[in-house]
Amino acid sequence: MTEMIFVAPGMNVNCQYYRDVLLSQQMLPAIKRVTRARDTIQLLHQTTPDFFGPDLWSTDSPDLNPVDYNIWGVVHQRVYKCRVSNVDELKQRVVKVWDDLQQTVIDSAVSQCRQRLRACVRAQGRHFEHLL
Prior knowledge:
The chain is an all-alpha fold. It is built from six helices and no strands.
């Protein structure tokens, strides 16, 4: 799993903040800590027939991103089982739930990708939830 990156409450995440702080200072160093990503992607292409790499990921559609259409819903449900008292407690819960997320939850979300992609194509890129 990847690490969680939080934005301070009230922070305006515009393109400059995203580029200079989130991407440059936090996300890119985290990505670099993931060793040999290109070799891993190449291996997955060769050994896993259902694997589709970053070149096929939709850049701006939450309906096609497993984290957006499935996993965050699971995380949200588990985080808010009980009332949250403050931001620090919320962060702790999010990290704990994320770290404890079972592989089966991720596998289930990923297994829906092809079906969702086909529905998106049938809908010519428009709303397609009703086709699932």
